[in-house]
Amino acid sequence: MATITTAADQQPNPSASSRRPWILFDAGAYIGDCPNGTTAEHFTSNNKSIKVSIWPDDPPAPSRLFVHLPDLGPNLLLEDARIVSSADRFLLLRVRISCPTIRSREMGDYFIYRAERPSLRLLPKPRPFHDDEVGLLPRGEHFTIAVLSLDMHGFDLHLFKSESWAWTTFSKVPIVTPQRAFPIEIPRKAFRLNDHITTTAITLGGEGGTMGWVDLWRGILFCDVLSSSPTLRGVPLPLPRSLVNHGKGIEGCPKPYRGIAVVQGCLRMVEMEVHFDGPPMLDPETGHVNFRIRDWELSTYTNRKISGAWEDWQLDCTAKASHIDIDEGMQWQLLQSGLLNVKQEGRGQKLENLHTCQPVLSLDNNGVVYLLTKVKFMQSRAWVLAVDIKGKRIQSLAEFSTDRNLVLSHEYCPSSISSYINARATPASGGSLGCLMSQLQQADDGSQVQHKD
User: Fold this and answer.
1) Phi and psi torsions of 371, nearest 5°
2) Which of the residues 123, 205, 234, 339 has an alpha carbon 20 to 30 A from that of 223?
3) Could you tell me which residues are beta bridge partners of residue 371?
């Protein structure tokens, strides 16, 4: 398969000095009224007014999405609001509204948000699907939403096209080019590699509207979603280094350890390998289990050919946390944040001991990887580290959240929507944090602001 240019490559985003080329979104929306020049308004499926606003910031600081329902009423609860997918000028949002007195299994409302002329529109109810199974294909003024779901009969492709404003389904989409066999024998403790379980979706674009559904442990199923007879073709991912180098088993969700992105028409992948120091122990401070970390290591790969061969993946570079340089200014920031500390005889918490996960690649193709990090596994306070993996140094640090659920979960995602947002339309005074603090102060006076995970 030849290298395919993305939709962004074909139609470059509007550029201006006041616009950020890309941002790191906090995927879980904040619930509160923070209007600015990005605010758009529409109605939910039960005819309730809904307003959405974006407050962008420079990575690694999180950019935030605010959702507000001014006439929700006492018998309804805004249960969850989340960014499901982002591509160029578009965001796909999911919003769940529930009645505390009635048990509901509805998956919620889906909205498409458009940035350059802020607008929000409700989508027709789709078939139930998981957030990981959906991706966005921008097509100039139009877009396609694509969902690849698996049932006992095979893969089904559900498409929503903005021209018709309706869903269509292709059942039992055939895999015409299966993923090639693994170059090593897969042991029983790595049987997870034998099944494709989608964990994220990516967009390449091009004439056929190529999208990929990624199992971050195993490989990618590519599909030209604009084809009249769509088919699937498999492309492998590099085998986990922990399996190849240390014979460790593969289990659980890969998101804490792997990330993938399409950058300048190439596939790029980052992998994190964590080296634990002994078995988990009960932490008296948090009352939860805690894992002692000895070290962690980052590896990045590039695939320019995307032909389906294992050899297409080229290892770019690796960096161990214990070998990453921390200059004097960054050392001070890390000490002030509490991420690092120095105890007697110079021993204490070091970079390699931090609970770090969820590697995210920069969309600038500058070799920077963003990482979510904490001092302890079950603490609620978290930061994002920007690591220059080629230079083996920490570039910057930003506090991500203090009110998350306790576990390290996948909660932030890169987006180029900021290149369609004029920064002058988003007042810089206080930024999203200032707006959030204002909302919290209002909450003390009787109103309510929430952060939903």
Assistant:
1) -135, 135
2) 123
3) 385
- For residue 99, the one-letter residue type is C
- Which amino acid belongs to residue 373? T
Residue 51 has which token pair?
Answer: 């307003």
